[in-house]
Protein: (2Fe-2S)-binding protein
Organism: Sphingomonas glacialis
Amino acid sequence: MTRFTVNNQPVQYKMAPDTPLLWALRDASNLTGTKYGCGTGDCGACTVDIDGEAVRSCQRTIGAVEGSYVTTIEGLSRDRSHPVQMAFLDKNVVQCGFCIPGIIMAAAVLLKKNRNPSEDDIRAGITNLCRCGIYPRLVEAILLAASVQRGDETIAAPPRPGITPADAAREVPALTPPR
């Protein structure tokens, strides 16, 4: 049995130690924010924070993280209040959104290590791939997040995720077929 901490909760996986961390997180823990992209560690969609390092979870086995602390996008902030998440919303970074959790995790780790990164530091530190081409806004957002973390700037609180139960259950008028 493999034991480590995920999002500040101790976990014990009854899976083979050579199981990729990505699949343990997604399948056993239902933490589906960590995405399967390429399976080779090239795209970064599966990036998580392991003991303060941005790691491609498809390339790390659960046996290799025994005793470690793993943070996924779900553990970063449930209400999108982490400065990187807020900056991504503020700068309208997200397009399709598939790669975003991995990029946010890589950015959060980068800002833990470097409170005042330059544009070159960001480009060198964020090696995740995005097919939508968000890179110019991505750099702006990470610079803003760094500024917020340092206390130099503020961002308005993000909207709460989801919709209200009343909105989800409202009746939609029936369509009248054309004659």
Remarks:
- Residues 83-150 form a domain with the DNA polymerase; domain 1 fold (CATH 1.10.150.120).
- The chain has a mean pLDDT of 92.
- The chain has seven helices and five strands.
- Strands lie at 2-6, 9-13, 47-50, 53-56, 69-71.
